[in-house]
Write a structure and sequence with these properties.
With 321 residues, the chain is α/β, with parallel strands linked by helices. It folds into two domains: 203 residues, DHBP synthase; 88 residues, 3-Layer(aba) Sandwich (Rossmann fold), CATH 3.40.50. 31% of the residues lie in helices and 19% in strands. The strands form two sheets. An eleven-stranded mixed sheet has the order 1-8-2-3-7-4-6-5-9-10-11, with helices on both faces. It has a four-stranded parallel sheet with strand order 12-15-13-14, sandwiched between helices. The radius of gyration is 19 Å and the shape is globular. The two termini are 33 Å apart. Bound molecules: threonylcarbamoyladenylate and magnesium ion. The site of magnesium ion has 5 residues, from loops.
Amino acid sequence: MVFRTEIGKDISRAKQLLDNEEIVAIPTETVYGLAANAFSEIAINKVYKAKNRPSSNPLIVHVGNKEAIYELASEVNIKAELLIEKFMPGPLTILLPKSQLVPEIVTSGLPHIAIRMPAHTVALELLNSLNYPLAAPSANPFGYISPTTANHVFCQMKSKIPYILDGGHCKAGIESTIIGFKNNIPVLHRMGSITVEEIEQIVGEVVLNSEHKVTMAPGNLEKHYSPRTPVILSIDLSEIIDKFSDKYIGLITYDSYCPDLPEVQQIMLGKSTNLYEIAHNLYAAMHKMDLSGFDFIVIKKLPDEGIGKSINDRLNRASKS
Ligand code: TXA
Ligand code: MG
């Protein structure tokens, strides 16, 4: 099906389409999602198809209130309860054993469901107007960078979906942190907008998911979150610029322009002391650079601390060839 994709702010229009098992792009505080009725196999299949994503990769289910979490999960352990109380609504996704309400196609047959309650007024108003939760991966083609504005979604998904609900530029700008549990120990499945340190303050030590089954989940693939233009992650910008002096380089910087390149070839993300501002602006800069015809996008690695770790994780994956 080919759609004349519309962008608008009409929550009831989004609800009407979702009620009819159509898919709609929705804003969240992290990135835009491609949403479908989580209880409708027909709608979920449309998500996989529009995203060109293998159906072996499960979808996060979004809820509008905390009670819904307890209906979708068959069991909520004490640490999960603490995380729900502290971080939801917010950019945290938790993996819990799924209840019988959840169709297999949403979790790709896995016994756990990924659940999150977005901290975005438009998303919450929409979710609370529906009598089902919304399964939603990021609203980008498989492997590409996530969209943080309605226009990013339009550029990537136009004609594949009927409607984009515009909720402005996503505040956090990178995806949610995903936490599961093994023998009641919290396990990190994806770094994201909430730091591991913040989670450890609430539930104690968090371990990495090195032996977990879903390491092939798209967000964990080595190459993911990538623009089409090759990305070079660098520690020494001048060295790279020198080495590729015959190439047309786009440079993503932080506090100031680099004197070695024309300013029109550069985007500043913000002060390197304010990593949240950098996360907020990062994907928008990559989308813009990707449309500018550069041979390479060069970006400098951030200090590996706090949310800088999550940003570096995305930069590392974007730069894998
Ligand atoms: O911030 C976010 O999390 C955004 C917004 C739209 O909510 N969503 C998002 O979805 O990033 P997606 O599909 O692009 O990434 C979700 C990740 C994938 O790596 C997926 O494999 C994993 O979560 N995931 C989903 N359900 C899972 C499950 N049941 N078990 C393990 N991993 C799961
Ligand atoms: Mg994604």
